[in-house]
Amino acid sequence: MDYTVDEEQFHLETLSSHIQYLAQLPLESEKMIEMMQVEKQKKSGSDDKVRFFKLLFEKCLSTAAAAAKRLGTHIRTAQKWTAKYERDPDCIFEKRRKTGRPCILNEEHKKAILECIDENPSIVLGNVMQHLRRAFTELKARFLPKV
């Protein structure tokens, strides 16, 4: 049996070099732009709505999807805005009611706190709470100091 030395059994050729591979990768700035576009799609604000309806009405685009594509807004979001506008044109830009726990302190309480701090700028929170409890007996706010 004869052995052949220094002869390649498989013919290999280089498809691309490491430099060519790196050149094909997207730049960091492009990645950041893509990430910002994804974040933008998640949070649609009133400015986006204004631009959307301006495109829809002034540029006379035929569908909400066409305007959404131009703005980079999700198509379904634009369709919801259009449907809401068709139901009631005035309510589309109204802010939603705040959800969650209602505030314990009202404007009178806030004024009393500011007056207390104006009288004594170095007052601590515990003393402010005592002042509030004396001034407003119905107040049920608690202050738990850190130990």
TrEMBL record:
Domain of life (superkingdom): Eukaryota
Species annotation: Rhizopus oryzae (Mucormycosis agent)
SUPFAM superfamilies named in the record: Homeodomain-like
Name listed for the protein in its UniProt record: Homeodomain-like DNA binding domain-containing transcription factor
InterPro entries: Homeodomain-like_sf
